[in-house]
Amino acid sequence: MFHRIMLSVAVIFVLATVAPSAELRNSVVKIHSSQRPPDFLRPWTKTPARKTSGSGVIIDGRRILTNAHVVQYSSRLLVQGYQSTQRIPARVIAFAPDIDLALLELEENSFFDERPALSLAEGIPKLKETVNVYGYPIGGDQLSITEGIVSRIEFAPYFDLTSGLRIQIDAALNPGNSGGPAITDGKIVGLVFSGIPSAENIGYLIPSEEIRLFLADIQDGQYDGKYKFFDEMQTVRNPALRKRLQLPEETGGVLIRKPFREEDNYPLKQWDVITRIGDVDLDPEGNVQVNDNLRLSFQYLIPQFEKNGNVPLTIFRDGKELKLDFPLLIEPQWLIRPLKGTYPRHFIFGPIVFSVGTQDLIRAVGPRGAALFSRLRNPLLSRRFDQLDGDEEELVVTGARMFPHPIHEGYDSQTFSVVTHINDKKIKSLAHMVKLIREAQGEFITFKLAGDYETLVFPREEMFEITEAILEDEGIRYQFSKDLEAAWNGAESSTNSGQ
To answer: Known catalytic residue: 346?
Structure first.
């Protein structure tokens, strides 16, 4: 009798420990994606479709949480459950490329009937806390579970000047793990979003705090983004600097080296020191105490204190302490903007392809391209974070090469050069450039390029005449993106001429 009781207790114990693990497995999915990212060398088309896969996790509301990069530029998305061969069509319902998060919904809600949603963990995990990472990395079809510890927590850059809390773990992560959950005590501590291929067992999680902010943001049906500072700052640790600022010995903060705006009504000025956010003091590195063993950038506290786009600050200016409600921004009007999941626009005239300078193009050219830009004084680098000033709406760039034709004999290819003028008229945007080309007069048409690039002069009428033949020879269907149709045709209407 005693042995039977002990056996029953043992069975109950085993079921209690195994059942949660089985439920966790059912909550993690594999995501199959057919992606067609932009082709910056051929902006009139997209790259060939490539099949990739990632991971995701079921959360409340019969939704699937994953990374933005897992689903970005996908022409088709399919979700496959644990121990299932069925692939269910899915669609993106929320997309945040700056923090690398996305939400999916499925065409068949019955998929969730036996697959429970997982909850988000509260707060920030502790250093050395054990996490289990669930996902579908390359190298096999079955669910993979790896274990690691939290080795670092910091407030760090993500994408396009957006920063957030980031967790570093030492669990083994590989391509395909992206979007999979890291779990402790049955709850999501974070979502896998990247690793370092050249380093051993270093991976990064988007923590549950950032996921909560994302989910709160999209409650109105759209993703707006995170409020943030854009002023240039530095620490106040140097003794001479502190004396110059008249900072009391016990006062910490960050120095405003360059205000984001120079207007008189902008609240922050050069030499101001932000000493407090809300009621929390900054240390001389600009950090705040979050818990006993963790200090983070004061900007980590923005969501806690932000109200209607403002955050309370205490600043030290000219030896005096001042309090102000500082207006934050989500996304300023940049001259060079990110694509955020859209495709580059284009216009073809003669042998030249024109497009628009974007943050994605700058990232795509990589370090070697950036070195070339720097050597040739290409403003794609020097003006990367300029704001709109009223005279320009965007930077127009040439393509990676000119199409073969005798008309450009003697000219270099002018790869991704920035076009500033047509016949001495300054260009404001790609649409404005198209209009200037259409309205150009005279024997020649001249393109002036910024930096150490050649000036291009062509016979105007011949450029118009050869365009159609070049498009046909290159197998290009559309001369320009659809949004440029009105600029090219003027008041005239036409059939669909863009992608």
So the answer is: no
- Shared fold status for 27-112 and 130-220: yes
DSSP secondary-structure letter at 69?
H
Q: Between residues 22 and 329, which one has the greater pLDDT?
A: 329
Among 207, 225, 228, smallest CA distance to 216 is for 225
Residue type, position 132, single letter: N
CB atoms under 10 Å from CB of 169, counted, come to 28
Catalytic residue among 53, 69, 346, 417: 69
Domain boundaries, the chain: 27-112, 130-220, 232-327, 347-489
What backbone torsions phi and psi does residue 177 show, to the nearest 5 degrees? -70, -20
Class at the top of the CATH hierarchy for domain 232-327: mainly beta
In Å, how far are 4, 163, 185, 279, 479 from 150, measured between CA atoms? 42, 19, 14, 29, 52
Query: Would you say residue 494 has pLDDT above 50?
Result: no
User: Can you give the pLDDT at residue 36?
Assistant: 95
| pLDDT per position as a tens digit, 403-412 | 999 999 999 9
Q: What are the CA-CA distances from residue 3 to residues 9, 15, 16, 91 (Å)?
A: 10, 18, 20, 54
pLDDT tens figures, 252-267? 999 999 999 989 999 9
130-220 CATH: 2.40.10.10
Q: What is the pTM of this model?
A: 0.88
Query: β-strands 418-422, 396-398: how paired?
Result: antiparallel
- Active-site residue flag, 69: yes
Catalytic annotation, pick one of 178, 208, 355, 417:
178
Q: How far apart are CA 341 and CA 343, in angstroms?
A: 7
- The sign of the CA dihedral 162, 165, 167, 173 is negative
Evaluate whether the domain defined by 347-489 bears CATH number 3.30.70.260.
no
The residue count of the chain comes to: 499
For 150-181, what is each residue's pLDDT tens digit? 999 999 999 888 999 999 999 878 889 999 99
Span 88-98, pLDDT tens digits: 999 999 999 99
For tokens 């198209």, the residue is 434
Nearest to 40 by CA among 257, 359, 260: 359
Nearest to 115 by CA among 212, 24, 1: 24
Helix (H) or strand (E) holding 206: strand 203-207
The CATH code of the domain at 27-112 is 2.40.10.10
